[in-house]
User: Fold this.
Amino acid sequence: MSENFKAAKKLLVLCVDRDDDIGQVTRLKTPIVGRDNVLKAAIDFAIKVPDDSDANALFAAVQTYDNLVSTFGRQRCEIAVVAGLPQEGIEADIKILSELTKVLEKFKADGVVLISDGPTDEQVIPIIQSKLPVLSVKRIVVRQSRGVEESFVLLTKYAKKLVEEPKYKKYSLGIPGIFMVVYVILSLTGLLEYISSALMLILGVLLFMKGFNIPERIKTSYSNYPISFTLAILSSIVLFLTSIYVLAQLGLNELSASALISFLTYTFGSYVMMLDVVVLSGLVISAGYSIEQIIRKTRQVPSVLSLVLLFPVLRQVILEACYFSMGRGSMLLVLYWFSMSCLVVVLSYILVKKIEKILYPK
Assistant:
């Protein structure tokens, strides 16, 4: 027996199920504490899903607990099962940490013997070590026959997982489904020659979103700022569709300074330009963010309001610069509106300071 085991006054045998298969199958609430409770959970789980490695991990935890009890005595040992969430990730780790804290409130352990059925569960070792040292890790590897029939059964089992479990089927079914839909659309519209470019574009967008964790960032942004996020999405959709319409009308073949000017000065009817659509989109997002900051009573409210005031002046500066580059305007007007924008910045700064003194007196 190692010196760490001898030094620890109380030992906790901990079985971790990061994706909460135990909870999903048995409907038992974790944490599960005590030998009898863990054994009942193991039997219930094994009856319902006899071929899952989590069942072996539960029984191994009970066996390890019994071995420690025979060596150190029942008063110095305890056994518990903690679980995360089906989607795993950060939220699952937070849940595991919370459940471990509850277990330690009942049993003041000095060290942990971790029972795991694979590397996924072992990813929580740093979380456990933030509470108490991990003295030993026991990984349960299920022995299986390598015959053709058993291999076929195993492949069938994993294929079933790919099409039934949410965390797998979005990749195994979702992505091929997108490719098939794009293929059919391009085929019906006579644009099948662009299929390779379209598929590469979709794959690139998916890799970009996954690589930079865009879905999680969107979820966080919506949770923190629901009003401005919703307005930003709506504004982006309107701006994107309008841009497609404008580009189709202009028929631009290459990106250049003159092409950008033509794009910004494209007129809808007699009054509204593409530049107005861009400015309006920015105003809507800023207004939504301002409303949210007012509701939250934060110190960023004046700064965002000053940005709202700046948008209309910047619009005029850009417009006059476009007219001048097209030979229809005057540099004097460009300088005039640029000076006006600088003046707005200065006045906005003074206004911000005044509002801050009123809203946030010392």
In short: The radius of gyration is 31 Å. The mean pLDDT is 80.
